[in-house]
Amino acid sequence: ALQIAAGQRADGLEAGLAPQSMFEDKTLTIDGWSPRNYDNKHYGKITMAEALAHSVNTIAVQISEKAGRQKVARLAHRLGILSPMPAGPAIALGTADVNLAEMTAAYAPFANKGFGVWLHTIVDIHSTDGEIIYQRHASGAERVINENLIPPMNRMLVQVVQDGTGKQAQFGHPIAGKT
Predict the structure, then answer these.
(1) What is the pTM assigned to this prediction?
(2) Of 12, 21, 23, 39, whose CB has the highest number of CB atoms within 10 Å?
(3) CA–CA separation, 160 vs 54, rounded Å?
(4) What pLDDT sits at residue 3?
(5) CA-CA distances (angstroms) from residue 141 to 16, 77, 98, 110, 178?
(6) Which residues lie closer than 8 Å to 64 by C-beta, 6 or more apart?
(7) Are 40 and 65 in contact (CB under 8 A)?
(8) Are 142 and 161 in contact (CB under 8 A)?
(9) pLDDT tens-digit readout, 113-137
């Protein structure tokens, strides 16, 4: 399943939210569906950054609803997801199936100043006598997210590893991520 939370928070930033934007973690029902937090607890008022760091599902859904599900799906595609993105209320929780290459592409713009990447696995192919039969010549993708949104997004992704659900990934060097 796709963990689109980071991209969805980026869409929240595009919609004018900030890491310090406050949300109420509470029971919520949309179209007859009610998201739950992993531990079945609610945390009251917390920031968007804290919600991302601690994988608070109810707030992820609120942000997705505020930004617009179709916009979340479009951002996922801009970031590098090629698979279909059903735009139901659970899109915020990563309910679409994607492969590892797509996930890698989707997170790359946060480390690449907002530029997308075209993933590839074959750089060149040589014949048995060393002649180049194929060589990749394509360049990278265009900017897929406003570079001004990258620093706040990256600060939130760092917080996931420093204080949140990604704490186990710490290894003594700066790192950003999302569980």
Answers:
(1) 0.81
(2) 12
(3) 7
(4) 42
(5) 25, 13, 20, 14, 23
(6) 8, 11, 72, 89, 91, 92
(7) no
(8) no
(9) 999 988 777 889 999 999 999 988 7
